[in-house]
């Protein structure tokens, strides 16, 4: 059991479920649809964690600044992401508002970030699955822009294709910034995180360039 510590805001320790969406397997590793997995991998690197397997997911846990974090990558494939997330939430008594989901967003330019609480699936099948398993309850979303392929393009082919080299130059710092955004959300609140990261294009170090905000 973990001890109850005081977090940044002086409250009892909270448990946050940080979920990155993607598809399992090396063939999907560098696709647009897997930026959520890349963020979770970066959390594991940051906190020197090793993944374990349970409930059709890879997961790792740690405590930091008075909070407990459970990082998960559902291994159910994108369209059934909600199954594993629901299981972890139930077994750890995590409320919907303590769940943060990181995923790709076609309505944002490549590398831009957007945080919010609640909303629709926006055509994203992974988010749609989570909403179905949680009965439409609100959870936090951290969306990483991958841009839209344009009218008439095959969406499935697009999100399941690899980033170009020029896109990777924007995506890598964006994934790094998404990690910072999640930690700020958990320690300083959603407003602080949104004001800092929403609409930004992070620089090479993953820090938000405020002048690039829309």
TrEMBL record:
Active site annotated at which positions? Answer: 33
State a GO cellular component annotated for this protein: cytoplasm
What's the catalysed reaction?
an N-acyl-L-alpha-aminoacyl-tRNA + H2O = an N-acyl-L-amino acid + a tRNA + H(+)
Which of this chain's residues are annotated to bind tRNA? Answer: 28, 77, 79, 125
Q: Which Pfam families match?
A: Pept_tRNA_hydro
One Gene Ontology term of the molecular function aspect: peptidyl-tRNA hydrolase activity
Q: Does the keyword RNA-binding apply?
A: yes
Class of the enzyme per the UniProt entry, highest EC level? hydrolase
What PROSITE patterns does UniProt report for this protein, alphabetically? PEPT_TRNA_HYDROL_1, PEPT_TRNA_HYDROL_2
Q: Which GO terms describe its biological process?
A: protein quality control for misfolded or incompletely synthesized proteins; rescue of stalled ribosome
> Which Gene3D superfamilies does the record cross-reference, listed alphabetically?
Peptidyl-tRNA hydrolase (3.40.50.1470)
Record-annotated site: Stabilizes the basic form of H active site to accept a proton: 104
Q: Which InterPro entries match?
A: Pept_tRNA_hydro, Pept_tRNA_hydro_CS, Pept_tRNA_hydro_sf
Q: Which UniProt keywords apply?
A: Cytoplasm, Hydrolase, RNA-binding, tRNA-binding
- Give residue numbers for the site Discriminates between blocked and unblocked aminoacyl-tRNA: 23
Q: Where in the cell is it found?
A: Cytoplasm
Per the UniProt record, which EC number(s) apply here? 3.1.1.29
Q: Name the HAMAP family on file.
A: Pept_tRNA_hydro_bact
Q: Which NCBIfam families match?
A: pth
Q: How does this chain assemble? A: Monomer.
The entry's family comment says: Belongs to the PTH family.
Q: Any idea what job this protein has?
A: Hydrolyzes ribosome-free peptidyl-tRNAs (with 1 or more amino acids incorporated), which drop off the ribosome during protein synthesis, or as a result of ribosome stalling.
Supply the name of the protein: Peptidyl-tRNA hydrolase
